[in-house]
Amino acid sequence: MTKDKALHALMLTMGYGCVAIGLFHVLLGNSAIPGESSAGPTIDSLGRFFGAIFAGYGVAWIQAARRSPIRTTAVRRLAGILFLGGLGRILSLAVHGWPHWFQVALGIVELALPPLFLWLARTDSEQ
């Protein structure tokens, strides 16, 4: 598989995954958050709102993947947003301690995937 095909496949996987996760949070609210099903209505409202935003983020990945050629700038921006989310998890860990193990796993993915996206999106002139 070429780098371009791998990038396209990873971007679509990311996009559809984010849409699915976002809609899951919109529909299930607090029940979608591991260990937090008993959180109150304020957290439920916030979670459903951010679920919709995350679904929109997924749509942005899908749209970027459908461009030909794929725009490196779009990949960099979307990967940067994902990385920023991972940094937010580190900040939360520093301030409040260790979250549910699944949130830790998500943080690792959020910090590991952006460099892969950036590497796959590099043009020949940037190497």
What keywords describe this structure?
127 residues, mainly alpha, 4 helices
Characterization of this structure:
This protein is an all-alpha fold. It has helices at 3-28, 41-65, 72-96, 101-121. Helix 1 runs antiparallel to helix 2 (41-65) and helix 3 packs antiparallel against helix 4. It starts with a helix and ends in a 6-residue tail after the last helix.
Structural class: mainly alpha
Number of domains: 1
Kindly report how far apart the N and C termini lie.
19 Å
Oligomer: single chain
> How helix-rich are the residues, as a percent range?
over 70%
**Overall pLDDT level:** 93
Order of helices and strands: HHHH
- Principal-axis shape: globular
The percentage of residues in β strands lies in under 5%
Largest sheet: none
User: Ranges with pLDDT <50 over ≥5 residues?
Assistant: none
Strand tally is 0
Task: Give a topology summary.
Blueprint lengths: L2 H26 L12 H25 L6 H25 L4 H21 L6
Helix pairs in contact: 1-2, 3-4
Quick rundown:
The protein is 76% helix and 0% strand.
